[in-house]
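Render this sequence as a predicted structure.
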Amino acid sequence: MEYSDEERIGLRLLLDELDAEPMRMVHPWMPEYLEVSVGRLFIDWSRQVDRDIAAGLPGPAPSRHMPDVIKKYSRWYIKADAFLGQYQYELVEVIDWLLLAAGARHQWLENVDEQNRPKKLMKCRTVQALYNESQKCMRGRQSQCKSAKDLNDADERQVADLGAGYTVVELQTPHALDVESTRMRHCIGHGNYDGRLGHPGFHYFSVRDAEGQPCATVELTPKLVDGEFRSVIRQFQGPRNAAPEPFLVDMFNSVLDDILPDEMPSTTSAARPSLGRF
């Protein structure tokens, strides 16, 4: 697909919205994988939107205030917001699948076309097709570790005492993610997140009550903020992806700078609403 100069601006803006550049910490080509998959389909979608507008149909409406600094590109911000909103569920799964595949160096990434693009990605003509590939990859994966009693000190470690019996535990291995997934009834243990463990800026925490039961799971990912990489909270989820209790969020944020390693400063939230969910 050939892109116009305008479309290249839109593509770059979408990748910025997805925080693609920090994903090079997982694999040096992650932004390119996103460009030839999600980005390519975004431009297809954008062209269809333009055809619909030319035919007299309404275009997407702004979903947020546009500061003067970005009004020059407001058309693309509006399109990116609409695209990400329309396909939010599917894109979370697709991006997590790509991070898993890239981090684990899955062999299919080496099967490329003449332009060095993975053929598995290029054959997908819709977001739904990409989503189906992501689900096919994870289908049949079974957690090997189902109970907290199966874990040891290498799997998770307590990193903060929040008071009132609450603590913060860092999840350090795929086994720890598996158990957290089983206990919290969300999909952090399905394999999508395994490949990020140990990479700078990626951290997974569990907030536990006085009985040691998990109350919330937190994901931090790297994001470029004011010219430097910071670990930002991408997801903060309660059981079954319910919203966490506000007091848990406040307690966690109060110790965030203390529990992160010195590799990267933190900030408590991303610049835009998170796509993520476990």
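Summary. The helical segments are 5-17, 30-54, 74-86, 88-103, 119-122, 127-138, 174-184, 246-259. Confidence is low (pLDDT under 50) at residues 270-276.
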